[in-house]
Amino acid sequence: MKTVNKQISLKEIKIMTKRKFGNLVKAVVDINRKIMVVDADLHSDEEALLIQSGSQQADLWGINFYPEKYNSADFIEFDSMINLRPSQNNLSRGIEDKKIQKQIRQIVKNLITK
Questions:
Q1: What is the pTM of this model?
Q2: What are phi and psi of 16, to 5 degrees?
Q3: Is 109 helix (H, G, I), strand (E, B) or coil?
Q4: Arithmetic mean of pLDDT over the chain
Q5: Nearest CA to 17 among 38, 42, 46?
Q6: For residues 63 and 80, is the Cβ–Cβ distance under 8 A?
Q7: 75 and 32 in contact (C-beta within 8 Å)?
């Protein structure tokens, strides 16, 4: 697992895909602190690391990256079991709030460089 609080290259993300899933990298984004953790088998492990470092669970959202789709809308997939949160009116594994999706896209754009 790697905490990303400074820019990381797309090339490094692509290398991560080879170590685990072949075509994707799991990540959890803290929309308040504007950081993320990447490269774990489970979103819940990334979530736990962020909570240990001071994040609030309500600010954490699980996503997947598909590096080969970097220039398309399919680069980020908003899908994780940690997103299932009835207390925040998120009733699916996806991220239903378009505002949160937009925040995540901006954070990712700032952190992953081509």
A1: 0.95
A2: -60, -35
A3: helix
A4: 96
A5: 38
A6: yes
A7: no
